[in-house]
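Hi team, as promised in this morning's meeting, here are the two structures we talked about. I've kept the exact order from the run log so nobody has to guess. The first one is mostly here for context; it's the second one we should focus on when we meet again. Sequence first, then the predicted C-alpha cells.
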Amino acid sequence: MSTSERRDFEERYSACFTDFALKTVTGLLIGSMFGGFFLRGYRRWPMYIGGGLGFGRAYSNCEDSLNTFLLSKEPRPCVIKKKP
C-alpha cells in the first residue's frame, strides 16, 4: 500500500471507532428516554436494545466502508519466501 492509500485506510478505520461510539451512545440515550417517558418508569431493556441497534448499525456501516475500500484495490499475488 502506498502512503496515501494507507492514510485513507487509517482514516476510515478511525472513523469507524467514532461511529461506534456515537451510534451506541445515541441508541442508549434514545432507549433510556423511551423507557422513562413512554413505559412509565425506568426500565433497562429499551436502553439495551437501543444500544445494540446502534452498535449493529455502526458495525454494518464500518464493514461496508472498509470492504468498498479494500475491494477497489487490485489483488496482488501472495508470495511466500522460503528460508534458506
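And here is the second protein, the one for discussion:
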Amino acid sequence: MNTSTVLKLVQSSNILAKCSPVLASQFHTSSALCRVVSGKYRITKKRDRPLTYEMANAPHYIAHRKSWNSWNTSSLKDGLRKSETAVEDEFIRRFMNGTWHGLVCSEIIIKRQFNHIRIAAIVRRAVSPTKMYFLIGYSEELLSTWIQCPVTLELQTVDSYKDVIFKYI
C-alpha cells in the first residue's frame, strides 16, 4: 500500500467515527479479566462459615469432582418436557424443604429414570423413627399423586449438621 491509500483509509475511518458514535465506542482497550468469581463462597475473617462437600467445590468442578443436582435426559437435543421438568424439580425441592423443615442437611438430588423419580438427601435424626417413616410415606404418596409417576425417597441420616461439614472458610 502506498501512503495515499493509507491516508484515505485513515480519513474515511475518522469520518465514519464522527458520523457514527456507536461504531467509535465499540473499540475497547482494557485488559481481559479472567477470574472465576461467581458461584464461589467468600472466605470470612474468622474462617467460621461451614461448607458441605457440594458447596466447597466451585461450579466449574461439576462432572469432575461433584455431580449434577438433577439427573434427567430432557435437556438433551430433542428432549421432551424441558420446562415442565425444571418446574417439577423446583417444586420437589421446595416441597421437601417444607415437609422436612430443618432436617435436610445437604442438597436434594433428583434422579429420573424412565417414569420413576428417585429423590436423595441427607437428613438429621432429630425426630422419632415413627415420625420419620410417616414423613417418608407422606412425601412419596403426595409427590406420586401430584407428579403422576412413582416417587422413591432415598435418605441417609446423620446425627447432626456438623457431620456433613466438609470444611470451614
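Starting points for discussion:
The beta strands are 50-52, 70-71, 109-113, 116-124, 151-158, 165-168.
The first helix runs from residue 3 to 19.
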